[in-house]
Amino acid sequence: ELGLWLDAKGFPKSILATAARRQVPVFCCGLPDGPIGEGYSTSAKAEQAPVVDFFKDYRIATDIMDVAMMSKRGTSVVFLGGGVPKDFLQITATSVRTRHGNADPTPHKASIQITTDNTVYGGLGGATLATECISWGKEAHGSDNVMCFADVTIALPIICQGLFEHFGRGHRREQPRPLKLAEIF
After folding, report:
1. Could you tell me if residue 16 is inside a domain?
2. pTM for this structure?
């Protein structure tokens, strides 16, 4: 909803607006913690801004993970930073496992994390991708995991430019039919 609202307000090239048009869910579980939350709060008072329901987001994320994990399709995830947003997505894997009586679903098959955090201070939001996350069932055994220790505002544009240069403007990836949110509920 927030992405469609941003699109209508004249921000069609934003990550959220682009994701909304392509029906790619973006979860902002730590949204109130910072200037984005303050901006949202101000906008909500001034006009009819969409409602951000964090419990609904968690249910949607868990439902998506349930479909992907139980079908053995698995998921891939990109973590920009760590902390609450990372743990939000990773804990869905253990929630799906609990839903099915500790069945053996397939959690994230590939993960990328760009972060300035390190393990020394415990700020990785659910641990390193290649060790603790696998032992806790948040990442699949044998999954492709990459951790980039850098500032997101520096690393993400470089990665995006590299992908653009590698694949080119006309690249269109053949992909399986995406999961539609309406099919999950």
Report:
1. yes
2. 0.65
